[in-house]
TrEMBL record:
This is Uncharacterized protein. Keywords: Membrane, Transmembrane, Transmembrane helix. The chain crosses the membrane at residues 7-26, 57-75, 112-136.
Length: 148
């Protein structure tokens, strides 16, 4: 069960990072006007468009995606999974904190969706720190140490 939680959390975070990163980096104007998609638009209310900041956000999400995919391929490496969780948790807690202080610019539906989606990302990151390796299962780091 723990491995499934790790796979699910890492997989969802990777999808979010790739979705946001590819869109923001390779089509920053469209990302700014249309994010998060599905007929919603959450960025124009936050201030004027800035291509540099949009592309930087895309690059940061792509870097998170790279780290998350590496961790997904090494899901039994507790140190890597927890490091990935810590990196995501720092970003998501700060990101969530900003947005909950600026909800007044959105309608009620978008306020609720912002809180729900951003809180879900915090939870996914926290799970990576809290879900231990399977009992009796040696993670990749433990196996390497024993070989040395």
């Amino acid at each position: 069960m723990n491995t499934k939680i790790r796979y699910a959390s890492l997989g969802l975070l990777a999808v979010v990072a790739l979705y946001t990163g590819i869109w923001a980096y390779f089509s920053p104007t469209s990302w700014y006007v249309n994010f998060p998609g599905l007929g919603l638009s959450w960025l124009p209310q936050l201030g004027p468009y800035n291509e540099h900041l949009a592309k930087d956000a895309g690059a940061m999400f792509l870097a998170l995606a790279a780290l998350t995919i590496v961790a997904l391929r090494s899901v039994h490496n507790t140190r890597l999974v927890q490091t990935t969780g810590a990196v995501w948790l720092v970003f998501n807690v700060l990101h969530f904190s900003y947005h909950v202080q600026h909800l007044d610019m959105y309608n009620t539906r978008d306020q609720v969706l912002n809180v729900v989606f951003l809180a879900a990302l915090v939870l996914l990151a926290a799970l990576l720190l809290l879900v231990p390796a399977l009992p009796g299962h040696r993670d990749d780091d433990d196996v390497r140490r024993r070989r040395q």
